[in-house]
UniProtKB/TrEMBL annotation:
<dbReference type="InterPro" id="IPR011994">
    <property type="entry name" value="Cytidylate_kinase_dom"/>
</dbReference>
<keyword id="KW-0418">Kinase</keyword>
<dbReference type="InterPro" id="IPR003136">
    <property type="entry name" value="Cytidylate_kin"/>
</dbReference>
<dbReference type="GO" id="GO:0016301">
    <property type="term" value="F:kinase activity"/>
</dbReference>
<keyword id="KW-0067">ATP-binding</keyword>
<keyword id="KW-0547">Nucleotide-binding</keyword>
<comment type="similarity">
    <text>Belongs to the cytidylate kinase family. Type 1 subfamily.</text>
</comment>
<feature type="domain" description="Cytidylate kinase">
    <location>
        <begin position="22"/>
        <end position="232"/>
    </location>
</feature>
<dbReference type="InterPro" id="IPR027417">
    <property type="entry name" value="P-loop_NTPase"/>
</dbReference>
<keyword id="KW-0808">Transferase</keyword>
<feature type="binding site">
    <location>
        <begin position="26"/>
        <end position="34"/>
    </location>
    <ligand>
        <name>ATP</name>
    </ligand>
</feature>
<protein>
    <recommendedName>
        <fullName>Cytidylate kinase</fullName>
        <ecNumber>2.7.4.25</ecNumber>
    </recommendedName>
</protein>
<dbReference type="Pfam" id="PF02224">
    <property type="entry name" value="Cytidylate_kin"/>
</dbReference>
<keyword id="KW-0963">Cytoplasm</keyword>
């Protein structure tokens, strides 16, 4: 994997004002991606979907026939993982090498493999270093970063940290509405299985100290965006 953790020009980096991070975590289907993207748009910030990196690595591993239950093999697959993502909330794309994988990383075969990739500690460390470098080099005044461990591991010192939740049945219904041709019960089961596997690695179901919970169970999309923007404003970020 390309090591982006050290700015190429340390002097330039020292002169650049720090990038404000808005950290948003939560379980699958809670609205992290859609709400974070809209909040970023309204703030003029960048948007970083961290789940896309784990999905892209899972895609890369699956394409190479790597057994994603084998940690050493997954770590090995990071060796030629040439990853890029857009931080522009109005122009979202994900690439691995020359391949545009924006759509492919949402396929079920990738979704089923992703938790196996994300549970490898050395993989997480190197991906987290990449996230921090992407934020620092974003060229934006701030970045809304969403995932599972942003409030706790990637950016625990962020001025705004939010846990976006919703009741499991509401999350399953939202995800199910997005995926046509699949049985709603099967979608709900898959979501639950993934949350169970993921929560063994990082706790994104309870808020860490100082993290504000936004529960979107009873809120529509606009109300959720407003609630998140309210927490951001309270945190002094404009
Ligand atoms: N508060 C909400 N009310 C209704 N639908 C929502 C709400 N928040 C998000 N959605 C929709 O639910 C689906 C899942 O949201 P998404 O942002 O992909 O969640 P996550 O990134 O947490 O998995 C999307 O289709 C999104 O438009
Ligand atoms: N910060 C993050 C983000 C995602 N992930 C992993 O990446 C997977 C995909 O994340 P995602 O945000 O795209 O998933 P959805 O909740 O949008 O379906 C998760 O199921 C986790 O296994 C993680 O481990 N840490």
């Amino acid at each position: 994997m390309t090591d982006l953790s050290t700015p190429a020009d340390a002097t330039a980096a020292a002169q650049t004002p720090p990038v404000t991070v808005v950290a948003i975590d939560g379980p699958a289907g809670s609205g992290k991606s859609s709400v974070s993207k809209e909040a970023a748009r309204r703030l003029g910030f960048g948007y970083l979907d961290t789940g896309a990196a784990y999905r892209a690595l899972a895609w890369h591993a699956v394409e190479r026939g790597v057994d994603t239950s084998d940690s050493a093999a997954v770590l090995d697959a990071t060796g030629d993982f040439d990853y890029a993502i857009s931080l522009d909330p109005d122009h979202y794309w994900v690439r691995v090498g020359e391949a545009d994988v924006t759509e492919a990383i949402r396929e079920i075969r990738v979704t089923e493999a992703v938790s196996g990739v994300a549970r490898v500690p050395a993989v997480r460390q190197s991906i987290n270093a990449m996230f921090r470098a992407m934020v620092a080099g974003s060229g934006r005044p701030g970045v809304v970063v969403e995932g599972r461990d942003i409030t706790t591991v990637v950016a625990p010192d962020a001025p705004v940290r939010i846990l976006l939740t919703a009741a499991p049945e509401v999350r399953a219904a939202r995800r199910s509405a997005e995926i046509s041709g699949h049985d709603a019960t099967a979608v709900a089961d898959a979501l639950r299985r993934r949350d169970t596997a993921d929560s063994k690695v990082v706790d994104f179901l309870t808020a860490a100290e100082g993290v504000t919970v936004v529960d979107s169970t009873e809120l529509d999309f606009e109300q959720t965006v407003d609630a998140v923007l309210g927490v951001i404003a309270e945190g002094g970020v404009r």
